[in-house]
Write a structure and sequence with these properties.
The chain is mainly alpha-helical. 82% of the residues lie in helices and 3% in strands. It has one domain.
Length: 176
């Protein structure tokens, strides 16, 4: 993992823990909105995977069928196809990872509404500790971390899709 990823994940972790320690909780009212939004995004991601895969296969077939000036174009096309395939695989991996995060986030959002038990307070070194409070802080921290990670992935996917569409747009203008 690169230093940038470690820094981002550390930042997300710190923000998540601090927010949950300062009392941020997921209310019942927002749970429906969160789950509905995640379901919509997950459906969108599946559609996006199909779209990117279809565009990649179409582009590969288009390039392979073009017999113009085979010797000169061949090396450029091979390089272009390799770059295009790597980009598409990377984008599909990011989308798939976002789907997994969304599914975990739905599961964790349900856990934020449950308590494991109605335990009494516990005394550790003369400090009162409430198991429900620790559970809520832990689950809320995980929820917030996954939420930050999902937003980050959405922004990354949007950025990559923008590059993908601009590349398609530039390519179509060259044909005209």
């Amino acid at each position: 993992m690169g230093k940038k990823k470690i820094g981002i994940n550390t930042s997300f972790s710190i923000v998540s823990i601090l927010m949950s320690l300062f009392g941020f909780r997921v209310s019942n009212n927002y749970l429906d909105v969160i789950i509905s939004s995640l379901a919509i995004f997950t459906g969108f991601y599946f559609t996006l995977i199909v779209y990117v895969t279809d565009k990649t296969v179409h582009k590969i077939n288009e390039v392979e069928r073009n017999p113009e000036n085979e010797e000169v174009v061949s090396k450029l096309l091979i390089r272009f196809l390799d770059k295009y395939k790597r980009f598409s695989k990377s984008l599909i991996s990011q989308i798939s990872f976002s789907i997994v995060i969304a599914v975990f986030l739905i599961f964790v959002s349900f856990l934020t509404q449950t308590l494991t038990c109605e335990c009494q307070k516990v005394m550790i070194k003369e400090v009162e500790i409430f198991p429900q409070m620790i559970y809520q802080i832990f689950i809320t921290s995980i929820f917030l971390f996954l939420s930050c990670k999902l937003v980050h992935m959405i922004l990354l996917i949007i950025s990559n899709m923008q590059a993908f569409f601009f590349q398609e747009f530039d390519q179509s203008n060259k044909v005209l």
